[in-house]
Amino acid sequence: MDKIRVIINNNQKEVKIPTGLRMIVRRCCNAVLRLEEFKGSAEVSVTFVNNEQIKELNSKYRKKDMPTDVLSFPMGIEGKYDTDPNTGAKILGDVVISMEKAVEQANKYGHSLQKEVGYLTAHAVLHLLGYDHEAGGMEKVRMREKEELVMLQLGFSGNTSYYLK
After folding, report:
1. Of the four listed, 57, 111, 115, 148, which is most buried by Cβ atoms within 10 Å?
2. Would you say residue 158 lies in a domain?
3. pTM over 0.70
4. How many domains does the chain have?
5. Are the beta carbons of 94 and 45 closer than 8 angstroms?
């Protein structure tokens, strides 16, 4: 892996973004790409939104009229990605995180907002790389194991309280 560019936007006002959260998101993206032995430079966009905004996206793109915690919009198909003409980086796609849902889930699972956003970021970046847990089975288990490995690399203790999506 060469260089990774993580573009972070905050498009919500409901949840104050804690100091250091953007660094956790960047470190998480890097950890997933290292774990997956990603070759070359990469670019990922991460946007923080509220429940209303993510509900609109979930309804439009997944036909589910409800807020969710995180959405991924991959730009690649089977490892082939568009390239940023200015940097030569592979554009992996967009991650959208509901900060309201992240707070709700952090409280539900009894851990920090930082840990929850880190987990959601790892989960979403794995989706950008082609992982899919929707069908269940071993793919779901492999994806969950990778999420846990990334969380441990970032210094968050292992935790089985996350529900398997």
Report:
1. 115
2. no
3. yes
4. 1
5. yes
